[in-house]
Amino acid sequence: MSDAPLLELRQVSKRYVMGDNILDALKDVNLKIAHNEYVAFIGPSGSGKSTLMNIVGCLDRPTGGEYILNGTPVAQLDDNALAHIRNREIGFIFQNFNLLGRANALHNVMQPLIYRGIALGERRRLASQALQNVGLGERLHHLPNQLSGGQRQRVAIARALVGKPSILLADEPTGNLDSSTSKDVMAMFDTLYRDGHTIIVVTHDPNIAEHCQRVIHIMDGRIVSDKLNGKRREARAGV
Amino acid sequence: MYTLIESLNSALQAVVAHKLRSVLTMLGIIIGVMAVIAVVSLIQGFSNSVTSEFKGLGADSLTIQSYLPRKQRLAGKIAKVTPDDLLAIQHEVTGISSLSPILPVGRFFNPVRYHGRSTTSRVIGTTPAGALNNGTYPDHGRFIVPSDDLRHRHVAVIGVTLINKLHLPADPLGQFLQISGDWFKIVGVLHARGQIFGFDQDNEVIVPYGAALSMQGGAAVPDIAIQLKVNDPRQIDAVTARITQVLRRQHHLKSGQDDDFKVQTASELLGSFTSVLNAITLILGGIVAISLLVGGIGIMNIMLVSVTERTREIGIIKSLGARRRDILLQFLIEAVTLSVIGGIIGVLFGYGIGVLAAHAVPAFRAAYVPWWAVLLAFGFSATVGVIFGIAPAAKAAALDPIEALRYE
Ligand SMILES: Nc1ncnc2c1ncn2[C@@H]1O[C@H](COP(=O)(O)OP(=O)(O)O)[C@@H](O)[C@H]1O
Ligand SMILES: [Mg+2]
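^ inputs. structure came back:
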C-alpha cells in the first residue's frame, strides 16, 4: 500500500440552515484514513457521525473545508463523476438496510453492476457469488420482506461488496439487529478487514467499536479523540 | 452504460407490480387510441366499399349535375340541368358512346302499391343507355328498351327490396304496380346491389324517361342528372369542355359568370366523397388528439406520484451509483411503456369495436384498420409518454441522494 491516504478531510464543516436556526453538524473536522484501516466513528446520537459518513461516501457535500478522495478534491467533481465514485469506490451499508423492496436478493446485489455496464449473465454470476460469500446462496430469489433482519443486512453487505469498492462504509450496521446477529455481522467485517478491505463503521456501541483497529470519538460535530485500539493492533501485527 | 433493455425490463416490472394503477393510468390513452382506431376502421371500411362502387362507373364516364355554390343558393338562385340540355348535348357533342338521363320522380320517396299493399321507393326515369351508364342490369326480365318510350309504355324495372316489401310473387314479371296513381307493368328485376351507409340501393323503381317526364306533370321544368360514356377515355377532357360550352350557352351564362352545373368524372365524384371523409377523419382526429392529451396528463400525474412514492428507491439507486441519465431514462421508459401498452390495448379494443359495429350495422362493410392508423396511434402514444414523462423523470433524476434517502 502507498503511504498517501485513501481519503483526507481538511477543516470539513457541515452547516444546516433552517430558517433562523443554524446548526453546525460538523465543525473543522480533520481526518486521514489510509488503505486497509478498520475505523469506528463512535459518539452519542446526534453528534454528527452520519453526516460525516455521508460526506465520506460522496452522498453529501461539506459546506466548508476540503475532502480529498484518492488524491482528487471531491468538490471539483460533477454529478456523473460522483455517481461513478459511489458506484466503484464506495460500498455503503445502512442501519435500515435500504434494499430495493420490489427486487429479490439477487437483483438487489446485481443493481450496482448495472451502472457499470456489465452484461446480465456476468452480473448474475458475480451477484450470486457475492451472496454465496455472505452465506445466502440459498436465498437468491427471496424478496427483502421474506428475509430476517440479519439476512437483509447480509444482502446489503453482499451488494456493497460485489463491485469490489476501495472503502466499505457502514452506518450503524447492527442498529436494527439483535445481539447474536450483530456478532455475526461484525465477524463478517473482521474477516473483510483481514482480507484487506478498508472499513469505516459508525456506531454508538463501544462493543462494536472494540472490533476496530482505530476508534474516532465524535462529540457535537468535532473529533474529540482518535486512538488506535491496542488489542486490535496486536491482532493485526500477528497477521 | 445502463442499456435500454435494462430500463425496459425494470419499467415492465414496475407496470406489472401495480397492475390496477397501471391500467387506470393508461385509461386515457386506451380510450383515445381506441376511439381513433374504431372510427378510422369504420370510415376506412365504409370508404373502401364506396370506392369499389365508384370504380364500377369506370374511367370513361361523366356525370352532369346542376350545381350552385351555397352562397348563391342561399341568395335564392336556382340551377337546373333540363331535358332540353340533354337534347342539346345529344345533338351537339360528339365522341359520346352512350348518354342517359336520371330523372328522379316526385320526391325522394314515392308511394308504390301492389294488391292493397303500399310502400315507398325511389323512382327514377331513364333511357335504355342508363343500364350501361349506371351499371344497373336486370337479373330477370329486361331493362328499359327504346320502344318503351316510342310507344309510351308504362313499364317498370324494380329492385329486389320491393318484392319483399310488397309481397310480390317470386317471379314478379307481368305484375302491375301503382306508382303515384299510374299503373306500371313489371318487366325486369334489377341485380341486387345491397346497402351503402344505411341507404338501400335496391329500393328502387326504374321507369322509362318519357313516362317519368309525364309524371312530372309538366308544371315545372325538372332538374335531371345526365350520365354518359365517351368513345375514347383520352378524349374525356375535350368532351367535358364541349359539354361545358353547350350548357353555358343553354343556360345563357355570360363570360365571367360561374358554371351552374358540374361535369365530373367518376374519380372526381370519388374525390369529393373522399375529401368529405377526410374532413370527418380530421375532425375526429382532433377530438382524439385532445383525449390523448388528457391521457398524457393522466400519465404525468401518476408518474409524479410514483416519483414521490419511490423517492427512497431513487435515493438507494443513487447511493449505488446511478447517474442522472440512468434515472431519467428509467422513468421516461416507464412512462413510454405505460403509454405504448395503453396504445396496444387501445388498438385491439378499437379494432374490436370496429368489427362489432361493422357486423351490427349492415351499412358498414368490413372494418378495416390501415397500417398508418396503427403506426400513428403508437407514435402518438409514445410521444405522449415522452412529453408527459419527461417532467416527472427529470424531477426524479434531479433528486439529491441524501435527501432522497432520508425521505420517509
Ligand atoms: N438534513 C438535515 N437538516 C437539518 N439538520 C440535520 C440534517 N441532518 C442531520 N441534521 C442534524 O445534524 C446533527 C447530526 O446528525 P447526524 O449526523 O445524523 O447524527 P448521528 O448520526 O451522530 O446521530 C443532528 O443534530 C441532526 O439533527
Ligand atoms: Mg446516524
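Chain B is about 55% helix and 15% strand. Residues 342 and 385 of chain B are 10 Å apart (CA to CA).
thumbs up if we can close this ticket
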